Amino acid sequence: MDYCIKLLSELEKLDLAIFQIDDLKKEFEKRIERQINRQSILLSAILSIIFITWYTSTASGLFTPSVVKITEFESFIQMFALSFLTWGVGLVLTLAFRVLWEKDFLPGGRKTISWALLPKFQKRQQEIAQQTQKVLTKEILLNSWLDKKYLNTKSVSYLSEVLGSRAVNTLDEAVDLLELEAQNQKVRKELIPDENVLTRAQKAIQEDLKDNQVKKSVSKVIFDSFV
Protein backbone atom coordinates (compact mmCIF):
# COMPACT_ATOMS: atom_id res chain seq x y z
CA MET A 1 0.00 0.00 0.00
CA ASP A 2 2.87 2.39 0.79
CA TYR A 3 4.21 1.76 -2.69
CA CYS A 4 0.86 2.71 -4.24
CA ILE A 5 0.68 5.90 -2.17
CA LYS A 6 4.17 6.97 -3.28
CA LEU A 7 3.39 6.07 -6.89
CA LEU A 8 0.09 7.94 -6.76
CA SER A 9 1.87 11.04 -5.47
CA GLU A 10 4.18 11.10 -8.51
CA LEU A 11 1.36 10.41 -10.94
CA GLU A 12 -0.63 13.30 -9.49
CA LYS A 13 2.34 15.57 -10.16
CA LEU A 14 2.24 14.50 -13.82
CA ASP A 15 -1.52 15.05 -13.96
CA LEU A 16 -0.96 18.55 -12.59
CA ALA A 17 1.71 19.24 -15.21
CA ILE A 18 -0.66 18.11 -18.00
CA PHE A 19 -3.35 20.40 -16.62
CA GLN A 20 -0.90 23.33 -16.39
CA ILE A 21 0.24 22.92 -19.99
CA ASP A 22 -3.34 22.59 -21.21
CA ASP A 23 -4.25 25.70 -19.23
CA LEU A 24 -1.24 27.48 -20.73
CA LYS A 25 -2.43 26.69 -24.27
CA LYS A 26 -5.90 28.01 -23.44
CA GLU A 27 -4.44 31.19 -21.96
CA PHE A 28 -2.23 31.63 -25.05
CA GLU A 29 -5.29 31.39 -27.30
CA LYS A 30 -7.29 33.78 -25.09
CA ARG A 31 -4.48 36.35 -25.19
CA ILE A 32 -4.46 36.23 -29.00
CA GLU A 33 -8.25 36.59 -29.17
CA ARG A 34 -8.18 39.43 -26.63
CA GLN A 35 -5.54 41.32 -28.63
CA ILE A 36 -7.50 40.89 -31.88
CA ASN A 37 -10.67 42.17 -30.16
CA ARG A 38 -8.77 45.12 -28.68
CA GLN A 39 -7.33 46.07 -32.06
CA SER A 40 -10.72 45.73 -33.78
CA ILE A 41 -12.51 47.90 -31.22
CA LEU A 42 -9.77 50.55 -31.23
CA LEU A 43 -9.58 50.88 -35.01
CA SER A 44 -13.36 50.91 -35.46
CA ALA A 45 -13.63 53.58 -32.72
CA ILE A 46 -11.02 55.76 -34.47
CA LEU A 47 -12.79 55.45 -37.82
CA SER A 48 -16.15 56.19 -36.16
CA ILE A 49 -14.75 59.35 -34.54
CA ILE A 50 -13.30 60.45 -37.90
CA PHE A 51 -16.72 59.89 -39.50
CA ILE A 52 -18.54 61.88 -36.79
CA THR A 53 -16.03 64.72 -37.04
CA TRP A 54 -16.33 64.86 -40.83
CA TYR A 55 -20.12 64.74 -40.81
CA THR A 56 -20.68 67.33 -38.10
CA SER A 57 -18.16 69.75 -39.59
CA THR A 58 -19.21 69.47 -43.25
CA ALA A 59 -22.37 67.53 -44.09
CA SER A 60 -24.63 68.30 -41.13
CA GLY A 61 -24.67 72.06 -41.47
CA LEU A 62 -24.48 72.39 -37.67
CA PHE A 63 -21.27 74.42 -37.86
CA THR A 64 -22.10 76.59 -40.86
CA PRO A 65 -23.98 79.93 -41.12
CA SER A 66 -27.09 77.98 -42.20
CA VAL A 67 -27.35 76.51 -38.70
CA VAL A 68 -29.75 79.29 -37.77
CA LYS A 69 -32.27 77.76 -40.18
CA ILE A 70 -32.13 74.39 -38.38
CA THR A 71 -34.63 73.95 -35.55
CA GLU A 72 -33.72 72.33 -32.24
CA PHE A 73 -35.84 69.31 -33.14
CA GLU A 74 -34.05 68.88 -36.48
CA SER A 75 -30.69 69.13 -34.71
CA PHE A 76 -31.79 66.50 -32.21
CA ILE A 77 -32.97 64.15 -34.99
CA GLN A 78 -29.72 64.63 -36.90
CA MET A 79 -27.56 63.89 -33.86
CA PHE A 80 -29.70 60.91 -32.84
CA ALA A 81 -29.53 59.44 -36.35
CA LEU A 82 -25.81 60.14 -36.49
CA SER A 83 -25.23 58.42 -33.14
CA PHE A 84 -27.26 55.39 -34.18
CA LEU A 85 -25.53 55.20 -37.56
CA THR A 86 -22.11 55.54 -35.98
CA TRP A 87 -22.89 52.77 -33.47
CA GLY A 88 -24.02 50.48 -36.29
CA VAL A 89 -21.03 51.26 -38.49
CA GLY A 90 -18.68 50.79 -35.53
CA LEU A 91 -20.20 47.39 -34.76
CA VAL A 92 -19.89 46.23 -38.38
CA LEU A 93 -16.31 47.50 -38.60
CA THR A 94 -15.39 45.74 -35.35
CA LEU A 95 -16.73 42.42 -36.65
CA ALA A 96 -15.08 42.93 -40.05
CA PHE A 97 -11.67 43.78 -38.61
CA ARG A 98 -11.91 40.84 -36.21
CA VAL A 99 -12.49 38.41 -39.10
CA LEU A 100 -9.76 39.99 -41.23
CA TRP A 101 -7.19 39.80 -38.42
CA GLU A 102 -8.26 36.27 -37.50
CA LYS A 103 -7.56 35.16 -41.09
CA ASP A 104 -4.36 37.28 -41.35
CA PHE A 105 -5.76 39.33 -44.23
CA LEU A 106 -4.47 42.49 -42.49
CA PRO A 107 -1.02 43.20 -41.00
CA GLY A 108 -0.80 42.49 -37.28
CA GLY A 109 -3.13 39.49 -37.43
CA ARG A 110 -3.20 36.17 -35.59
CA LYS A 111 0.22 34.99 -36.78
CA THR A 112 1.95 38.24 -35.86
CA ILE A 113 0.33 38.36 -32.42
CA SER A 114 1.13 34.69 -31.71
CA TRP A 115 4.77 35.21 -32.68
CA ALA A 116 4.95 38.22 -30.34
CA LEU A 117 3.45 36.28 -27.41
CA LEU A 118 5.20 32.98 -28.13
CA PRO A 119 8.55 33.54 -26.31
CA LYS A 120 6.87 34.31 -22.98
CA PHE A 121 4.57 31.28 -23.15
CA GLN A 122 7.29 28.95 -24.42
CA LYS A 123 9.46 29.94 -21.46
CA ARG A 124 6.66 29.01 -19.06
CA GLN A 125 6.08 25.75 -20.95
CA GLN A 126 9.79 24.89 -20.70
CA GLU A 127 9.74 25.49 -16.94
CA ILE A 128 6.81 23.07 -16.58
CA ALA A 129 8.54 20.60 -18.92
CA GLN A 130 11.74 20.63 -16.85
CA GLN A 131 9.84 19.92 -13.65
CA THR A 132 7.85 17.18 -15.40
CA GLN A 133 10.98 15.57 -16.82
CA LYS A 134 12.41 15.26 -13.32
CA VAL A 135 9.31 13.35 -12.25
CA LEU A 136 9.37 11.14 -15.35
CA THR A 137 12.94 10.03 -14.61
CA LYS A 138 12.21 8.92 -11.06
CA GLU A 139 12.99 5.30 -10.27
CA ILE A 140 9.47 4.53 -9.06
CA LEU A 141 8.12 5.34 -12.54
CA LEU A 142 10.99 4.00 -14.66
CA ASN A 143 10.97 0.60 -12.92
CA SER A 144 7.40 0.37 -11.75
CA TRP A 145 6.05 -2.86 -10.28
CA LEU A 146 2.92 -2.24 -12.29
CA ASP A 147 2.30 -2.63 -16.00
CA LYS A 148 2.44 0.72 -17.82
CA LYS A 149 -1.28 0.63 -18.60
CA TYR A 150 -2.00 0.99 -14.86
CA LEU A 151 0.20 4.06 -14.48
CA ASN A 152 -2.57 6.58 -14.07
CA THR A 153 -4.16 8.12 -11.01
CA LYS A 154 -7.49 6.29 -11.34
CA SER A 155 -5.97 2.80 -11.53
CA VAL A 156 -3.48 3.40 -8.74
CA SER A 157 -6.14 5.06 -6.56
CA TYR A 158 -8.29 1.96 -6.96
CA LEU A 159 -5.37 -0.34 -6.10
CA SER A 160 -4.54 1.76 -3.07
CA GLU A 161 -8.14 1.68 -1.85
CA VAL A 162 -8.58 -2.09 -2.12
CA LEU A 163 -5.24 -2.67 -0.39
CA GLY A 164 -6.17 -0.22 2.35
CA SER A 165 -9.56 -1.84 2.90
CA ARG A 166 -7.90 -5.26 3.30
CA ALA A 167 -10.06 -6.63 0.48
CA VAL A 168 -6.85 -8.17 -0.88
CA ASN A 169 -3.43 -8.87 0.62
CA THR A 170 -0.99 -8.30 -2.24
CA LEU A 171 -0.53 -5.91 -5.13
CA ASP A 172 -0.98 -8.73 -7.65
CA GLU A 173 -4.33 -9.62 -6.09
CA ALA A 174 -5.34 -5.96 -6.25
CA VAL A 175 -4.47 -5.88 -9.97
CA ASP A 176 -6.51 -9.05 -10.55
CA LEU A 177 -9.47 -7.41 -8.80
CA LEU A 178 -9.02 -4.31 -10.93
CA GLU A 179 -9.07 -6.40 -14.11
CA LEU A 180 -12.18 -8.19 -12.86
CA GLU A 181 -13.93 -4.85 -12.34
CA ALA A 182 -12.69 -3.64 -15.74
CA GLN A 183 -14.42 -6.43 -17.63
CA ASN A 184 -17.30 -4.00 -17.90
CA GLN A 185 -16.29 -1.67 -20.76
CA LYS A 186 -17.69 1.47 -19.11
CA VAL A 187 -15.81 0.71 -15.91
CA ARG A 188 -12.66 -0.07 -17.92
CA LYS A 189 -12.71 3.33 -19.61
CA GLU A 190 -13.01 4.91 -16.17
CA LEU A 191 -10.36 2.88 -14.34
CA ILE A 192 -7.91 2.11 -17.16
CA PRO A 193 -7.72 4.97 -19.68
CA ASP A 194 -6.35 4.31 -23.17
CA GLU A 195 -3.18 6.31 -22.45
CA ASN A 196 -1.28 6.24 -19.19
CA VAL A 197 -0.21 9.45 -17.47
CA LEU A 198 3.44 9.04 -18.50
CA THR A 199 2.57 8.99 -22.20
CA ARG A 200 0.20 11.95 -21.86
CA ALA A 201 2.78 13.95 -19.91
CA GLN A 202 5.49 13.26 -22.50
CA LYS A 203 3.17 14.37 -25.31
CA ALA A 204 2.19 17.49 -23.39
CA ILE A 205 5.76 18.69 -22.76
CA GLN A 206 6.77 17.98 -26.37
CA GLU A 207 3.84 19.82 -27.93
CA ASP A 208 4.85 23.08 -29.59
CA LEU A 209 2.58 26.07 -29.03
CA LYS A 210 3.59 27.38 -32.46
CA ASP A 211 2.53 24.14 -34.18
CA ASN A 212 -0.71 24.24 -32.21
CA GLN A 213 -1.46 27.66 -33.69
CA VAL A 214 -0.66 26.45 -37.20
CA LYS A 215 -3.04 23.50 -36.76
CA LYS A 216 -5.72 25.87 -35.43
CA SER A 217 -5.31 28.18 -38.45
CA VAL A 218 -5.48 25.25 -40.88
CA SER A 219 -8.60 23.92 -39.12
CA LYS A 220 -10.28 27.32 -39.46
CA VAL A 221 -9.47 27.47 -43.18
CA ILE A 222 -10.88 23.96 -43.73
CA PHE A 223 -13.99 24.76 -41.67
CA ASP A 224 -14.57 28.04 -43.54
CA SER A 225 -14.27 26.25 -46.89
CA PHE A 226 -17.25 24.05 -45.97
CA VAL A 227 -19.38 26.83 -44.48
Instruction: Choose one word for the global shape.
Output: elongated
What is the count of β-strands?
0
Count of DSSP helices?
9
Order of helices and strands: HHHHHHHHH
What is the average per-residue confidence, as pLDDT, rounded to a whole number?
81
Poorly predicted ranges: 217-227
Fraction of helical residues: over 70%
Quaternary form: single chain
Q: How much is the radius of gyration in Å?
A: 30 Å
Report the β-strand fraction as a percent range.
Answer: under 5%
Going by helix content, strand content and strand pairing, the class is: mainly alpha
Biggest sheet overview: none
How far do the termini sit from each other?
55 Å
Q: How would you characterize this protein structure?
A:
Helices cover 78% and strands 0% of the residues. It is mainly alpha-helical and 227 residues long. The relative contact order is 0.14. Mean pLDDT is 81; it is low at 217-227.
